[in-house]
Amino acid sequence: MSNRWGKAKNRTIRTRDEAFEGDDFASNDNNERIKEREEMVKSYLDSFLCSDSVLIPTVTQRATCCGYSQSLYCSNCCQLLIPEEELPVTLRDNKSIQLPFEIRILLSDLRNKATGIHAAALCSNTRQVTLLELSDDPCSDGKALNDDDVETTFVLFPGKDSIPIVSVASRIQKLIVLDCKWTRTKNSGKFLPELSNYQKVHLSTPPTESHFWRWHNAGQGMLSTIEAIFYASWEVSEYHQKHDSNLIDLLYIFGIQRALSKIHADRLGKPSPFSKEGKEERRALRRCIGTEKHLRDIEKDKLPRAHKQGNQGW
Length: 314
Description:
- It contains nine helices and eight strands.
- A six-stranded parallel beta sheet has the order 4-3-7-5-8-6, with helices on one face. It has a two-stranded antiparallel ribbon with strand order 1-2.
- It has helices at 16-19, 31-46, 116-122, 188-191, 225-239, 252-268, 276-284, 292-299, 305-308; strands at residues 63-65, 68-70, 102-108, 129-133, 153-156, 163-164, 174-180, 199-202.
- It is of the alpha/beta class.
- The radius of gyration is 21 Å and the shape is globular.
- The chain starts with 15 loop residues before the first helix and ends in a 6-residue tail after the last helix.
- Strand 3, helix 3 (116-122) and strand 4 form a beta-alpha-beta unit.
- The longest helix is centred in the last third of the chain and has 17 residues, at 252-268.
């Protein structure tokens, strides 16, 4: 993709750090580039939805790894379980995706739901991605972060005190990413106070919406972990004018799971779970007392007593 920052007319020439910093990175001059990126991502993910897609492995049976039945990849050791002949050419022959920085993923979600593990599986040969399992006791986890250099390590976490990731693209060597439920990120500071030692960064040009199939009530701009890793990698690679041709394959496992979720929904006659209609349908199940899911949860004794009695405090 061509770089447009060299075509400066009738304006002061600035350094790359200055040019890429803040809102200027998302100016009208770059709308076309951002649009091309979004079209590329959508086209890549939609290619998995074709009935004759060669991107979805034809071998769908589960395999045993680390003592558990797994599909596509092992969520424990992060080994890809897809036969090599089924993988994209860019991932065959022990090839891995080259990231512009190291990634440390802090896991606080079920491993079979944590999309950050996709990055570890797809970059296993380069060892650029490490996982840190977080417990409910922050004192037992923060020690592993103390060795990271605060000058070159950053936390991908949007907030009032975060800065655009491209503003530190020239010195970022490691990116810390939280892989947890959206509802838990609000208390991340209390949950892991060691994160306060590092500068927080956010995507400079985030996508308008996520392609994820899990729903939430947190509003727009909430991405899955693997989507956030992809866009962060893309922005920093673009800053360095060095794109790995297979960087888009960070979304390979994500694309397969997304397509399989649609196939399952189609069989049930329901809208795709990643569509607006599908997410709204799933939100509606939790909106009021007496829904089908609410009654099922009562039968399974999964709800607090207040909810069983009709208190709409949730």
